[in-house]
Amino acid sequence: MEQYYKLFRVRELADNDEEFIKTLAETFLEEVPVDAERLKKAVAEGDYHNAYQAAHKMKPTVDLFELGILDILIEVQDWGKFEKRDLDITSQLETVINAVDLAIAEIRSDFNL
Hints:
5 helices
């Protein structure tokens, strides 16, 4: 439990209300995979606007669950925001997607979702 994500800030926010913590985990599982797919597609297509929006939307949740990739996600976000055409963001994107995938699997398992 909590190898690829951390619940410290989630527990603090939820005041240790286990039902609310589970609700936040469910919300993570509903939103983050969709946003991650949108981000992958946008980067693959060179769609800077959608890459920026998807990364920006993911930031608070990635930060709350402490996936340890916030700085890298911000690099991907800024690639889209500033249309950094001369920058290959592929490795940063892979790091983000890998961390998200690991956290998704672990949260599903930990919360039996």
